[in-house]
Specification:
193 residues; 10 helices; Hypothetical protein af1432; globular; mainly alpha; single chain
Length: 193
């Protein structure tokens, strides 16, 4: 990692996880394998911020830990990349085990339980599907009906989501990195890095 940490993917230690490495990697990993509209790829860092905002919109009283679980839900992709769900399923259980092990180490690094509480997991999964719907329709060329079949109907219309236009417009890499770091700091404070 650029921080100098050497992360063992087969046995990840929370001590080798650095927020700057996560933000750096996620800002450079493209959602939809880069098959999106816009001058920039829609990054996993930006998707992560969108998912957190959708979780907050669905449950405004969500606490800092819940917000952090949402922000970090795809954090393993900073080293594993963004692999589409059908391919993950075809790859089998070992991939998911590695991903969950790394996610647990990331959670512990930032003072969370290794596994998110069930209610938070359900909230984040719902927000993740809603983000996929909005990304599909706004960025990846899907018709709304097609996206609804794949991801379900979002609970809120895009105009009911604060700052939706800024959240869905692809950010340059440096902006995605900075915003991910800024959102993290806002959720837990700068001393948590």
């Amino acid at each position: 990692m650029l921080s100098g940490r050497r992360l063992d993917l087969l046995d990840p230690s929370p001590l080798d996880v650095e927020l700057g490495d996560i933000a750096h990697g996620l800002a450079r990993v493209a959602r939809w394998n880069g098959q999106t509209n816009g001058d920039y790829a829609f990054s996993v860092a930006q998707h992560s911020v969108l998912v957190m905002e959708l979780a907050i919109a669905a449950k405004p009283e969500i606490d800092g830990s819940g917000r952090l679980y949402a922000l970090l839900h795809d954090a393993p992709e900073y080293v594993m990349g963004d692999i589409i769900s059908p391919l993950k399923a075809a790859m089998g259980g070992q991939y998911k085990e590695l991903e969950n092990s790394l996610l647990g180490a990331i959670h512990v690094r930032f003072s969370l339980a290794a596994k998110a509480p069930t209610a938070i997991t359900k909230l984040v999964k719902k927000a993740d599907k809603e983000a996929a719907y909005f990304e599909a329709v706004n960025l990846a060329g899907f018709e709304p009906e097609e996206a609804r079949k794949l991801f379900g109907e979002p609970a809120l219309a895009s105009f009911d989501i604060p700052d939706f236009e800024q959240l869905i417009r692809p950010w340059p890499i440096h902006v995605a990195h900075e915003k991910f770091m800024s959102v993290f700091s806002t959720v837990l404070g700068p001393s948590s890095k």
